[in-house]
Specification:
The mean pLDDT is about 90. Helix content is about 25%, strand content about 25%. It is globular, with a radius of gyration of 15 Å.
């Protein structure tokens, strides 16, 4: 099934699934900020949710284009499980926004991992976003292959931006 996701649905339909992930969570985003989400009835940093997920043994990969700002880094330091159990890679050419959940469902769309894109910002302060979520096997496989080709550095050999890559994958 393909589901169209717009505006606040990014939060309710995509982010709400992340605490329930069982085996694998891959996230790609161009921009990454100190995003807050509802978790067990309270507003918490998204990093807390990721920390809870990795503590359960879920493989979490986070691929993003640039180092996040100071608030994100300060929150990151509060969750030691993320330091060793979550894999992170930087690629300045990453502009895709996608989330793969348990190799069964993927979201692909315009929303970055920011409060205005996927977080708890009020409806009047959110970005106008659009995307799709699907569990169709061929689409899921294609999206995961795309992510994996970046993650593994397959595209690095022909990249014309190596001079700007401070944390080369390959």
């Amino acid at each position: 099934m393909i589901q169209y996701i717009a505006d606040t649905d990014h939060y309710s339909e995509v982010i709400s699934r992340i605490p329930k992930v069982k085996r694998l969570l891959w996230i790609a985003t161009a921009d990454l900020k100190d995003l807050y989400v509802k978790h067990h009835g309270e507003a918490v940093p998204f990093l807390k949710v990721l920390s809870d997920v990795v503590k359960r043994g879920v493989e979490v990969r986070l691929l993003h284009a640039k180092e996040p700002g100071q608030p994100f880094r300060e929150d990151f330091d509060k969750y030691p499980a993320l330091w060793t159990k979550m894999e992170r890679r930087l690629c300045p050419r990453v502009h895709c926004k996608l989330i793969a959940i348990d190799s069964e469902t993927v979201y692909i769309g315009s929303a970055n991992m920011t409060g205005a894109g996927m977080g708890m910002k009020s409806e009047n302060r959110r970005n106008f976003e659009a995307g799709i979520m699907t569990d169709e096997p061929g689409f899921v496989d294609s999206v995961m292959s795309h992510f994996d080709s970046i993650w593994e550095g397959t595209r690095c050999t022909k990249c014309g931006s190596k001079d700007f890559c401070g944390d080369r994958i390959k």
